[in-house]
Design a protein that fits this description.
about 325 residues, alpha/beta, D-Maltodextrin-Binding Protein, domain 2, 2 domains, 5-stranded mixed β-sheet, about 15% strand, binds glutathione
Length: about 325
């Protein structure tokens, strides 16, 4: 009895000192009336304001999709913009419920930062953008280069690995945001800029002279990007994971925001389960059975998210790793049953 008391007391003190409330994220979100989502906010294709001032992009739209899954209303989300350095503390401390910020899943982040990764919403890899005046055609020719890079990222770590493995030296020039990184490169502070390849195209298009810079062919790392949640709340993790799976499943089944009402009448049992016509997929997660219907209806299936946000960056889905597994890609959602 005493021991139990002692242990509980110790745990409470520890919990108060170091941990946010464990579990109960869904209840907190519902009681609050909106989802708190951490995003980049300045990264075209992933999360950036559109001309109406609404936050859009594959990461931001996913947050809206989770809000739709919970509330039946995609607008019930508040976005918090976070730098690469700030993002994990914001999630583990409870400042946001969900981190959807072009974040690479790695073992160290997963095991040491009090967070859990869910699934991937864009599979990326790191590359290099160089000034044409450098006269370089391959990353292997970058010995001695000065490299603009964003702090607190996997990009920094891969950069060091790549140069070491290839017996080359480099001078890192670190920045906190991609705007600063781009301006550093544009202003001549470095010869090379490195980041996830999805961003190089966007960064290049925003240079003073886009034609004066080239993306080198090499992809030097694996950057599986996806939403992350705070560790310790399996129900919340399931909700976020299965909302993402639902968008991918809808893509597999040809269910779109335009035809989702029609699709409710489909005889296909997979579609019936996805849309809550049959079975209790949503209830099993603590949501309503229309959670996937609401998400797809309001933000679209995975392909709609991709075509709206990533295709305009010049990155074709077809033939890429981000295609569905049925089309030679890697995106694969487990069965919703
Ligand atoms: N995926 C990598 C890199 C993520 C990252 O923050 N990349 C920078 C490189 S440009 C970025 O997105 N910056 C956007 C910004 O700060 O607005 C990671 O998870 O560490």
């Amino acid at each position: 009895m005493h021991l139990v008391k002692l242990m509980t007391g110790g745990l409470t003190a520890l919990a108060l000192a170091t941990l946010p409330a464990l579990g109960g994220t869904l209840d907190d979100v519902k009681a609050r009336g909106f989802l708190k989502c951490g995003i980049d906010g300045g990264l075209p294709g992933f999360s950036a304001p559109n001309d109406k001032g609404q936050m859009v992009g594959i990461d931001a739209d996913f947050c809206s999709g989770v809000a739709a899954a919970i509330f039946g209303d995609k607008t019930k989300v508040k976005f918090t913009t976070l730098t690469a350095k700030e993002r994990f503390t914001a999630l583990s401390s409870g400042e946001v419920d969900l981190l959807s910020r072009n974040t690479t899943a790695t073992l160290t982040r997963d095991a040491t930062l009090g967070i859990d990764f869910t699934y991937f919403n864009y599979i990326d890899g790191q590359g290099f953008l160089v000034k044409n005046s450098l006269g370089v055609k391959s990353a292997k020719e970058l010995n001695g280069a000065s490299v603009c890079v964003q702090a607190g990222t996997t990009t920094e770590l891969n950069l060091a690995d790549y140069f070491r493995v290839n017996g080359m030296t480099f001078k890192p020039i670190g920045y906190d945001t991609s705007v600063q990184t781009r301006e550093g490169f544009d202003g001549g502070s470095c010869d090379v800029l490195t980041s996830d390849k999805s961003q190089l195209a966007a960064i290049r298009s925003e240079l003073k002279d886009p034609a004066g810079a080239t993306i080198l062919p090499e992809t030097i790392s694996k950057e599986p990007l996806g939403p992350a949640v705070r560790q310790g709340d399996p129900q919340w993790r399931d909700i976020v994971t299965w909302t993402l799976y639902a968008l991918i499943t809808a893509d597999e089944l040809g269910v779109t925001s335009a035809n989702v009402d029609e699709m409710k009448k489909s005889a296909n049992p997979d579609i019936k389960r996805l849309l809550g016509v049959e079975d209790k997929m949503g209830e099993n997660l603590g949501l309503t059975n229309s959670f996937a219907y609401d998400a797809v209806k309001q933000v679209g299936n995975y392909d709609e998210l991709y075509q709206r946000s990533i295709t305009p960056l010049g990155l074709k889905r077809e033939g890429s790793v981000n295609a569905l597994w049925t089309k030679g890609g890697l995106l694969y959602a487990p069965p919703m049953r």
